[in-house]
Amino acid sequence: MAEDSAQRLMDAEEHRRSYVAIMKATGEVAVxxxxxxxxxxxxxxxxxxxxxxxxxxVLTYLLVFFVVKTFFSH
Length: 74
Fold this sequence. Notes:
Structural class: mainly alpha
Number of domains: 1
Distance between the termini: 36 Å
Number of strands: 0
Shape: rod-shaped
Helix content: over 70%
Strand content: under 5%
Oligomer: single chain
C-alpha cells in the first residue's frame, strides 16, 4: 500500500512537470507565433505590402512574447 502511494506521488510530480513544460512552450512560442501570423496575413489581405506585414508580424511576436513571459513569470 505504501509503495502504491509513493508511486502515485511520483506520477503526480511527473505529470506536473510535463504540464509546466507544455504551458511554458505554448506561452513562449505558440501563442506569440500564432498572433504574429494573424497580424502578418491580415496586413497582406489589407494590401499593406510584404514589408509592413513582416515588420508588424515581428513587432507583434515580440510584444506578445514579453507580455506572456511577464504574465507567466510568477
